[in-house]
Amino acid sequence: MQRIIFTLIVGIIGGYIGIKLKIPAGAMIGSMIFVGGYNVLTSGAHVPSNFKLIAQIVIGCTIGLNFTMDSVLGLKKIIIPSIILVIGLTTLSLILGYTIHKFTGIDLPTALFSAAPGGLTDMTIMSESFGAKTHIVALLHLIRLTTVLTVLPMVIKILTTSLGKYSLN
Question: What is the pLDDT, as a whole number, of residue 153?
Answer without folding.
Answer: 78
